[in-house]
Amino acid sequence: MTTGRDDKNHPAGSEASLETGTEKTAQPQGRTPEQADKAPSQLQTPEQSAESLAGRHFDTKLIHFGAEIDPATGASSVPIYQASTFHHFNIYDPPQYDYSRSGSPTRQALEDYISLLEGGAGGYAFASGMAAISAALMMFSAGDHLIVTEDVYGGTYRLLTTILSRMQIETTFVDMTDLEQIRAALRPNTRGVYMETPSNPTLKITDVGAVTAWAQEHNLLTLVDNTFMTPYYQRPIEQGVDIVLHSATKFLGGHSDVLAGLAVARTPELAAELKKLQNGLGTVLGPQDSWLMIRGMKTLGARMERSEIGARRLAEWLAERGDIASVYYPGLPGHPGREIQEKQSTGYGAVVSFDVGSEERAKRLLNRIKLPLVAVSLGAVESILSYPPMMSHAAMPREVRLERGIGDGLLRFSVGLENIEDLIADLEQALAD
Ligand SMILES: Cc1ncc(COP(=O)(O)O)c(C=O)c1O
Prior knowledge:
Blueprint (H helix, E strand, L loop, with lengths): L3 H5 L6 H6 L12 H6 L7 H9 L3 H6 L41 H14 L3 E5 L2 H9 L7 E5 L4 H10 L6 E5 L4 H7 L4 E7 L11 H10 L3 E5 L4 H4 L9 E5 L13 E5 L2 H14 L5 H11 L2 H21 L5 E3 L9 H7 L6 E5 L3 H10 L4 E2 L9 E3 L11 H6 L6 E5 L5 H12 L2
Parallel strand pairs: 2-3, 2-4, 4-5, 5-6, 10-11
Antiparallel strand pairs: 1-7, 6-7, 8-9, 9-12, 11-12
Helix pairs in contact: 6-13, 16-18
The protein binds pyridoxal-5'-phosphate.
């Protein structure tokens, strides 16, 4: 197994090396010393570039992530390399990229970008969040047992209970906020712990550091779905987590116009493993969508911060009303996970869930509401109002859903960038009897 930067540049996973069994020499990305000599201030050697990137604040990394200027032309964005294959100029010196499933320059820029933001050893971009999650869960083998957050995203639940179960990968769902339940679920064949925090849609908070420390004592691989927080608010690798996953379709992309998934590994060895799975399964993100992701991610900080202000105001407004059965938001004073959230994250996020008491009332509200999209998904510039029982959690049997606190009247509000008072006025009219 090769390590580090070489793995990220994929010589071991490339088509050529798969066909011939040879390992190509990784070529440095970014600018050559010659290019740096020619350019006055912007162009740096790869070593200089890596050094200055690591020392920057998160907001600066969002904009200056290493590939923001095309070294060939000075263009102000990563070029879209719309190519499936790459010419061998010299057969004795194979090119860095040889086939787009194995590696594409536009996708590579995105993969390096998310790896930088999460603080990992390697990032990988997939055709959807579920493709990223599927690839990561393929790290496990028949006979392995996983401990998983009980209110995990519905699609992940479906993957575990109807697909991976056929491959003899067993799952125990636990309340991940309860360390006793996690400990009790341990079996001799347990190999991994899968967390999602805040959980979807009831926004329960898992103590990532505590669970990871326990998992490490038992040699378990740890995975966190970081979709709701994004690395802007939460970086699980800093807590020792092995693999961070994203439905990048959500806040990272941010505009409801790209379906994408990202996975980031903590170590070079895990990165090589993920790379092999990405190439082997072939569920990669295309160059156009990789470019759109990069474009969206540049404004992540500004969007998250603004949406969170709205979400806090909305949660408080809902909590003050007398006609809402429950409000779930980690920033509310009474939220049981608030302290842990504040320990491991720098924000509460932009998603508020609330239970209006009944299916009938929820559906009436959904038909009356005017501003938000009534839709599956979250994390966009426009607000999105979802009805989990019919949308994200439709795959979950009703009795399991109710057991997990996802009532028939539960709605999930992803606050966008509209004026929050307009959103509240809209909700007020939709809630009126
Ligand atoms: C928390 C979470 N994880 C994963 C997914 C799956 O991502 P995608 O729809 O991009 O496949 C979603 C989608 O809603 C999600 O909300």
